[in-house]
Amino acid sequence: MTKPWHLDRRTVLKGAGVSLALPWLEGMTGGLSAADKAASSKLPKRLCCVMFPYGVAVPKDDSPERQWGWFPTGEGKDYELTNVLQPLAGLKQDMTVFQGLSHPRCRSMNGHDTGDTFLTANNLAPGTYKNTVSLDQLVAKYLGDKTRLASLTVSTDGGIGPRTRSTTLSYSEKGQPIPALADPKLIFQRIFGQDNASRKDRARLENSGSILDLVLEQSGDLKRKLGSGDQQKLDEFETSVRQVEQRVERSREWLDIPLPKVDASAIALDADPESAKEYISAIYDLLFLAYQTDITRVSAFQLGSYGPTLARTFPACLGLEANWHSIAHKANRKGGAEAMGKFDQFLAQNLSRFLQRMKETREGESDSSMLDRTLVLYGSSNSRTHQNVNYPLLLAGGKNFGLKHDQFLKFGNDVPMSNLFVSMMQSLGIEQESFVDSTGGLSGVA
């Protein structure tokens, strides 16, 4: 018999058009039979894809600027992270770095056209926007029916953008771009079901300013039924949600900056540069929250685009030139690697924080973490800016799927990035033997 304090895995707190799904608690398995516990222990499998534009610095091995290059030194298990990826040093056991992979069909495209194809591997035909299904949407086809949102598509610039300068990574099975959300508050509302709130509920929400304020009474009733361990988890979760709410509000300052009416190559950042830092942190916090509450298991985050958008100004948050594109062009000239490397290091710091939070979040009754059950693909569709070969890529997480990590794998140009996609899908339990131009799975990963 199920004990009174047993919670359904889908338990939510509700109020004023808000539904706050709970993270995994011990009370969600307590009082169940051995068979029920076995079924309940089938924890989610997840995918997160993150792309940044403009490539990276790739100094020669004998260059004095080698430590500001993106790729590690060495090879295989015998490798060292450079300054750029050093923020991820504590996660080496949970990630693999790749060199040499790219999409062969996209190599002939203009150097900044390939953001559209990072997850599709498809060469966009001239004069048309015909694309093919993206990796995240193909995975969502198999994992998305188990959650309220089949997938979550976000980007720093939102919408779909123009052809070849897309502001979304996601494409449907018919190759149509899926609009990305950019406003952290809209993403927050999408996660917590406020999209369809009634006018009355919206008014209450606006007056309260916090979803937590609308569900705390119900939360208090729930806590009295939980064990001390679960009470602490719920307190930590509520604190986390409150912090995300506050970060979302701070980060919106960046979005309120209008695009200056100047030459696109000389966009200036007119507001507090700290807003860009808050914005990126807020997006990663929201992705984490969406996974923690099992609102979705698939997400794609385009961190900047190849077009003349506001995200180009992000380097200004570090006191660098307020033009990401310009910094990238200078990155592989003498003396230019450090500026690019410092900004890529900043991006790696944000990724590290996201991965570390997942690693520290335990799930179910096992010792596995959220990261152990999540694949995180991170990289760019250029190596040096405008070069569509040797993408900088890393794959983190997925230890429970049998993936090997703590290695730097080098491949020749004859190995398509799609082979990595095949291995990723198979590790997620998806019986997919091919993807576009793949020749099989990727050796050394599983």
Overview in brief:
The protein has 446 residues and is an alpha/beta fold. It contains ten helices and eleven strands.
Mean pLDDT: 83
Q: Note poorly predicted spans.
A: 1-5, 35-41, 259-272
CATH topology of the domain at 40-184 and 268-427: Alkaline Phosphatase, subunit A
* Largest beta sheet: strand ordering: 7-8-3-9-10-6-11
The separation of the N and C termini measures 41 Å
Key terms:
globular; Alkaline Phosphatase, subunit A; disordered N terminus; 30% helix
Task: Report on the architecture of this protein.
The protein is α/β, with parallel strands linked by helices and 446 residues long. It has a domain at 40-184 and 268-427: 3-Layer(aba) Sandwich (Alkaline Phosphatase, subunit A), CATH 3.40.720. It is built from 10 helices and 11 strands. The protein has helices at residues 34-40, 135-143, 184-191, 199-208, 211-223, 228-255, 274-292, 324-330, 337-359, 418-427, and strands spanning 12-15, 18-21, 46-51, 73-75, 78-80, 95-99, 152-155, 298-302, 374-379, 393-397, 407-410. The strands form 3 sheets. A 7-stranded mixed beta sheet has the order 7-8-3-9-10-6-11, with helices on both faces. Strands 1-2 form a two-stranded antiparallel sheet. A hairpin with a 2-residue loop joins strand 4 and strand 5. The longest helix is centred in the middle third of the chain and has 28 residues, at 228-255. It is globular. The model is unreliable at 1-5, 35-41 and 259-272 (pLDDT under 50).
